[in-house]
């Protein structure tokens, strides 16, 4: 076996923070849904079957951590994923198994 080495120059803080935030099932579902489309808050809470207040709290945390952004159109806010790291994590977790 070879000697184990770590990249001492790499800062893992941002990645660890993203993993912590995505560690909640509701936030993971939100990011999984938003990787393929932009959605407004109403559609997100309807799809999740959760109260709007609960979904809004999770969206606020995701937004504050720089994982999603919102775009206002009139009275509606549409969210999309802006973190490439979060997108790659979710894509890796939910890779299609592929049935021909």
Q: What topology emerges from the helices and strands here?
A:
Elements: H1 13-22, H2 25-34, E1 39-40, H3 41-48, H4 52-64, E2 68-73, E3 76-81, H5 84-93
Antiparallel strand pairs: 1-3, 2-3
Helix pairs in contact: 3-4
Task: Give helix and strand order, one letter per element, not per position.
Answer: HHEHHEEH
Overall mean confidence score, pLDDT: 88
Query: Helix count, per DSSP?
Result: 5
**Helix percent band:** 40-55%
Classification by helices and strands = alpha+beta
**How large is the share of residues in beta strands?**
5-15%
Mass-distribution shape: elongated
Q: Please name the fourth-level CATH homologous superfamily.
A: Winged helix-like DNA-binding domain superfamily/Winged helix DNA-binding domain
Biggest sheet overview: 3 strands, antiparallel
Q: What is the CATH class?
A: Mainly Alpha
Number of strands: 3
Distance between the termini: 39 Å
At the fold tier of CATH, the topology name is Arc Repressor Mutant, subunit A
Question: What would CATH call the architecture?
Answer: Orthogonal Bundle
Strand order of the largest sheet: 1-3-2
Number of domains: 1
Gyration radius from CA atoms, angstroms: 16 Å
Low-confidence stretches: none
Keywords: DNA-binding, Transcription, Transcription regulation
Protein name: Transcriptional regulator, ArsR family
Pfam family, one: HTH_5
Domain HTH arsR-type: 7-100
